[in-house]
Amino acid sequence: MAGKEGRSGKAETPWAAVLKLTLNEVDPASGKRKLRRLAEVTVDLALGGDMDAIEQIANRLDGRPAQAVSLDVHDDTGDGVRELLARLAAAQLRAQAAIGVIVDGGASALPDGSGGASAVPRRWYTPLRRS
């Protein structure tokens, strides 16, 4: 079973394959599948107030809560961020000029071919028509 793809599209590990086999076996003491017994024990623990068991059940039924991600850029003056954005815009415009793309609805943002930092595109791009 190793190497078989699981639901996520990733190859199933040998450990996961053995766990699945074991959990599908019948427990001789109860006559139920071991996976069923494991679920019953988890529910019993949750009913007894075990927060880990409660969390496991909630995650399986409702899905895990989305993890918050934040990005905080600290620059008191903002000059560093503005300079970086201007340099990125200039590089983008130079690349567009090199492949024959202009800013839609206006004159070229690079009249002298320099790609100056003041040229910040504000609209979608249109390929140049070649005749």
Keywords:
4 helices, two-stranded antiparallel ribbon, about 130 residues, mainly alpha, 2 strands
Would you spell out the secondary-structure blueprint of this structure?
Elements: H1 14-24, H2 34-47, H3 51-62, H4 79-99, E1 101-103, E2 125-127
Antiparallel strand pairs: 1-2
Helix pairs in contact: 2-3
Explained architecture:
The protein has 131 residues and is mostly helical. Helices cover 44% and strands 5% of the residues. The chain has a two-stranded antiparallel sheet. Helix 2 (34-47) crosses helix 3 (51-62). The protein starts with 13 loop residues before the first helix and ends with a strand.
Ranges with pLDDT <50 over ≥5 residues? 105-112, 114-125
Secondary structural class: mainly alpha
Report the span from N to C terminus.
Answer: 60 Å
Helical proportion, percent range:
40-55%
Q: Count the E strands.
A: 2
Q: State the helix count.
A: 4
How are helices and strands ordered from N to C? HHHHEE
**Oligomeric state as shown:** single chain
Q: Largest beta sheet: what is the strand line-up?
A: 1-2
Rg, nearest Å: 30 Å
How confident overall, as mean pLDDT?
A: 75
